[in-house]
User: What shape does this take?
Amino acid sequence: MIKKRYILNFPPQSGDKAFSYHLVKDYDIRINILKAEVYPGKRGSLLLELHAKKDNIEKGVEYLQKNHITCEPLDKRIHLKEEKCIDCGNCTAVCFAGSLTMNKETWKLEFDKDKCVVCELCIPACPLNLFTIDFR
Amino acid sequence: MSRIKTYEEINQKLKSGKAVILTAEEVSKMALHASPEEIVEKVDVVTTATFGAMCSSGAIINFGHANPPIRMEKIRLNGVPCYEGLAAVDSYIGATACNPDNPEYGGAHVIQDLLEGKDVILEAWSKGTDCYPRKHIKTKINIDTVNEFTLFNPRNAYQNYNVAVNSTKKMIHTYMGTLLPNLRNATYSTSGELSPLLNDPEFKTIGLGTRIFLGGTQGFVVWPGTQFHTTKPKNVFDVPVTNAATIAVMGNLKDMSADYLQAAYFEKYGVSMFVGIGIPIPILNEEMAKWVSINNSQIETSVLDYGTVGTPKLGQVTYEELQTGSIKVGGKKIRTAPVASLSKARKIANELKEWLQKGEFEISKPVQMFPENTSLNSLKETEGDND
Assistant: This one.
């Protein structure tokens, strides 16, 4: 069993179908909805945590993609320009999910993307503007 | 009788490569098992450092004269207003000044762009005079075209600083970072036992003319910093428990490195600049050995509520507690986060240590010590002026 977070982007024609039901029922995937947004024109985005056998997750993702839903691992959608980071810690102050933390020995920033809930508070909190998150 | 060393003796040891130099963190560890008497025997210099956002920073620039010349009376660098009241082609660009069309870009960014060798657009206007007939100029400048490019920071390296929290129900944005509502986080900005002015709290070795690490090169302490306050409340270890004294520093930006100066923008607050400062403390006597022995469990600071007018004090904590990741204020556990870089400060302390070890950096005796018993005036509003 593995746990992995994905960002799903729904085109207008897929917005009202019960995809999460099929992920549970047909692919035996435990899902946890961490964030959901619907935009004008029936487009939508979801942050899902999928918990299942690796094989099942792969098949579930394939099923979503066949239905024109973009489904990408969360870590591919979050970017931090690490080479420019000064380890000031401002982003860790707002990261209540515990994704961004300071290493207590080196006092360098550590970023565990699998804990991110895409609250996006780190984006304005970084005084160097080093974060980009592609959720929408 | 206890050992007393002179600046000359320490400099001689530095030149011959025989001096013992520790960082303030290293000496704090040593002090757990060694007395000040032993430390003054064993250690010659202790390096201290900080790398935090220091808003009262800026640069003096001389642009050079154009032909025909202009007496610049309104000046913009990449759209950022600079001071125009300094002769014809001198200016001062403050770190926090910002481009009104792009408020996230400010003086600190101009300084950083110049430091990184980038071209910056200079535009200036004048009424035109007999000796300076030109009325307008727009051209590109860079670090090589300007004459002097000098960092002059009126208030840096605060001796201790408050912890910021927010007790209100709304998130607030401050120079201490984003403060979540209902005391959900606490931010602090000092490098604790590594912090320069906490290792010489009574300014026995830091004064006018002290040679320091500034932005990656050698700079100087040139004056007490603005808001220089030496009579703030102290704890049992004689450490001020809130923001107290400061220093004004100066150095040649042409020799500095963008690794140690970093422009920043704080959401809904404005532009600032992270400044890297390292100060060597000569261990002249037992008293200095005692001061540098101080550790994070002995340095306390005040927890202030930035969400409430008057920033009331909610508690007092040590840097040891702050660095564990959480503090307790009024019985409530609050997650902590730094807003100044301890890893960069350590890098500076170690780099300064290397310079000293190589004999490239001489310890300087202040030409004048800083004033004692200073306090601050607040800005009084005289009756009727705001009608």
Notes: Chain B is about 15% helix and 35% strand. Chain B has a mean pLDDT of 96. The helical segments of chain B are 7-15, 24-30, 36-42, 107-115, 286-292, 319-324, 342-357.
